[in-house]
Design goal:
The chain contains ten helices and 15 strands. It has 384 residues and is of the alpha+beta class. Among the domains are: 31-215, Sandwich (Jelly Rolls); 303-383, 3-Layer(aba) Sandwich (Malonyl-Coenzyme A Acyl Carrier Protein, domain 2). Bound molecules: succinic acid (SIN) and cobalt (II) ion.
Length: 384
């Protein structure tokens, strides 16, 4: 009850990040409902990475990036790694770099400022660099997004249109009939929140950088298909088809009602509980994206030395690790563990805070310390 009260209080405190709204107010009035322009959401904000550092990231194999150009009035898109960046003096191009938080500590810290939104909904921090006139065209996204202006100015046009038809044959989503209702210019530190399906077009005025804090909302089709594949690992249907009562047939190609009934009876034994669904969700949502590679320590400490150091210095999750929990089930990077009450306390703290102090680890059970050591060897966590 204590924690519940503390959380309730925390979420009713006004945040400059939300323009003086509390998370409670923001959720009831804006989230998933209508846009919000927040002037100086982060006063005095300056970019976390230079454009050159961003260009370097875009050239890496394990970073998702796209180069979008509108040269000679023609949209073109190239998927990364991007090694040839147009010169800054050339107009009408933009570079988008996805998942910067997986590679940069400060970008991760920025993302964590939005931790009043559950991690299970959080996707990533995308950074765009645009030359003068650059943008991705009028479009809509299927996700909620906060667009933080990091450098330079961007002119936004937005509209609540229901006609979301797209121009056919384009390499990216471009609205056929964009009808903006509002327009404004965002300066560094300003932020625009947009709910899903809200039409928008952001055009750079001079060179600019915009940070998109994006959220994930998997389609039900995608969830259903993944759930069925999760179930293949968990179902148990012992026995084999048998028909001791079989009679001779005059129609050898026909499948009998008896066969259908017998198999239907067995298939009906496949059931799943809310707990199975919770385990599926945890594994599914904590699964790293295909492009993610963990960096193992070059010379890992022995388990004994690791344990000693962890209990002295503490540990922190790697930027690339995703950790969630539900009740006694703890999920990390697509794997799940059912843990006892004491271990759950420690592991849920690690998941929420993404780090533990040496003090937190003083009373750890050998099982947990052993798991931490394996995660350390896999690059899932590090010593602080
Ligand atoms: C951008 O930063 O250029 C694109 C952001 C968006 O419109 O979703
Ligand atoms: Co968008």
């Amino acid at each position: 009850m204590q924690a519940y009260n503390t959380d309730m209080k925390k979420n009713s405190i006004p945040l400059p990040l939300l323009g003086g709204l509390s998370p409670d107010q923001f959720f009831s009035e804006y989230w998933h409902k209508k846009p919000l322009v927040i002037r100086q959401a982060i006063p005095g904000f300056s970019p976390l990475l230079t454009s050159e550092e961003l260009f370097e990231l875009a050239g890496l194999d394990d970073v998702e990036s796209r180069l979008i150009t509108f040269f000679k009035e023609r949209w073109e898109m190239k998927n990364g790694p991007i090694n040839k960046i147009p010169v800054k003096e050339k107009k009408d191009w933009t570079l988008l770099v996805q998942g910067v938080n997986l590679h940069d500590e400060a970008a991760d810290d920025l993302l964590r400022q939005f931790s009043f939104i559950p991690d299970a909904r959080l996707d990533d921090l995308m950074i765009s660099y645009a030359a003068d006139g650059g943008g991705v065209g009028p479009h809509f996204d299927s996700y909620d997004v906060f667009l933080l202006q990091a450098h330079g100015q961007r002119q936004w046009k937005i509209g609540a249109q229901t006609d979301l038809s797209l121009v056919e044959g384009m390499p990216l989503k471009i609205l056929k009939n964009f009808t903006p209702e509002q327009e404004f210019i965002l300066e560094p530190g300003d932020m625009l929140y947009l709910p899903p399906q809200y039409a928008h077009d952001g055009v750079a005025i001079g060179e600019c950088m915009t940070y998109s804090i994006g959220f994930r909302a998997p389609s039900f089709q995608e969830l259903g298909e993944s759930f069925l594949s999760f179930m293949t690992d968990t179902i148990e249907l012992p026995g084999r088809y048998a028909d001791p009562e079989l009679k001779p047939t005059a129609n050898p190609a026909e499948i009998s009602d008896d066969m259908v009934d017998k198999i239907a009876e067995q298939i009906a034994k496949i059931t799943f509980s809310p707990e199975d669904i919770a385990i599926f969700i945890g594994e599914y949502l904590s699964e790293p994206k295909a492009s993610v590679y963990f960096d193992s320590p070059e010379k890992p400490l022995s388990p004994k030395r690791f344990g000693q150091s962890a209990q002295k210095r503490g540990i922190k999750l790697s930027l690339k690790s995703s950790m969630l929990y539900k009740g006694k089930h703890v999920f990390i990077n697509g794997e799940s563990f059912a843990v006892g009450q004491e271990d759950a306390k420690l592991l849920t703290k690690l998941a929420d805070e993404r780090c533990l102090s040496g003090e937190d680890l003083a009373e750890t059970t050998p099982d947990v310390l052993e798991a931490f050591c394996l995660w350390y060897e896999d690059g899932w966590l590090q010593l602080r």
